[in-house]
Amino acid sequence: MNGLRTSFDRSGVKLGHYVGEFVTPGIGHILKATGCEFVFFDMEHSAFGFETLKAALRYFEAAGLPAMVRIPSKSPDHVSRAMDCGAEGLVVPMLSSAAEARQILDAMKYTPLGRRGVALAIAHDNYRPGPVLEKLAEANRRSLLVALVETREGIAEADAIAATEGVDVLWIGHFDLSCSLGIPGQFDHPDFRAAVAAVERAAKRHGKHLGRMVTDIESGIALARAGYDLICYHGDVWLLQQALREGIAAIRAGLGEGAA
């Protein structure tokens, strides 16, 4: 099985990559060969359905690359279906309260920690038989909840969310957070900085992992030095565009043609 918990719980910064566009049989090995340590697989802002998720998780498993999955919503059926497909880490969008976190945990954990419907020897446990109680306990141990804090309400509840048993990671959704605060894209605004600081304090106070996505190297270094231990570097479609744009522009410039 994917070793997401093992990977996340080791000390030091873990660097990952966002996948929201390209799912090929080789994607896991492609990313693994770069030194990538985890995948942020996005179902919220893509057309990926659960059949695609199920296949993608096998590609990542083949490469030994842990993946966490951002589900489309907080709906219990999205939670349980992603778990049954084999997701070990769930990224839950717009998680705005400790009560919501407990509802998610109820849907993703087996008894006695939750009320997830039991289906064994399927994708999530690699179709293997085994003693029921041991399998339930192992599934509960493996599963991680990543609380995506990206609303004004989530900031107000950040400490309570972090204090909730079963929440493993606080992840800042910076763009949506800035919009919720009424300052879209203004990441240097005092209100945005104060909101981010509140999440950082909550994670530190309760010993939870802290994560965020970046699209430039300098920001990744700065966040790592500030105590973030989970950093997602760039997204598949944007990184391809950036590299291709730069390469084409450089060739044209070298030929004296200038920009297109």
Description:
It contains twelve helices and eight strands. With 260 residues, it is an alpha/beta fold. The chain has a single domain (4-254), classed as Alpha-Beta Barrel (TIM Barrel), CATH 3.20.20.60. Strands 1-2-3-4-5-6-7-8 form an eight-stranded parallel barrel, surrounded by seven helices. Helix 4 (76-85) crosses helix 5 (98-108). It is globular, with a radius of gyration of 19 Å. The mean pLDDT is 96.
Question: Keywords, please?
Answer:
260 residues, alpha/beta, eight-stranded parallel beta barrel, TIM Barrel
How would you summarize what this structure contains?
It is built from twelve helices and eight strands. By secondary structure, the chain is α/β, with parallel strands linked by helices.
The number of helical segments is 12
Here the CATH topology equals TIM Barrel
The CATH superfamily is Phosphoenolpyruvate-binding domains
Distance between the amino and carboxyl termini: 48 Å
Question: Any idea how many domains?
Answer: 1
- Quantity of strands, as a count: 8
Topology:
Layout: H1 4-9, E1 14-19, H2 27-32, E2 38-42, H3 50-62, E3 67-70, H4 76-85, E4 89-92, H5 98-108, H6 132-142, E5 144-149, H7 152-156, H8 158-163, E6 167-172, H9 174-180, H10 190-206, E7 209-214, H11 217-225, E8 230-235, H12 236-254
Parallel strand pairs: 1-2, 1-8, 2-3, 3-4, 4-5, 5-6, 6-7, 7-8
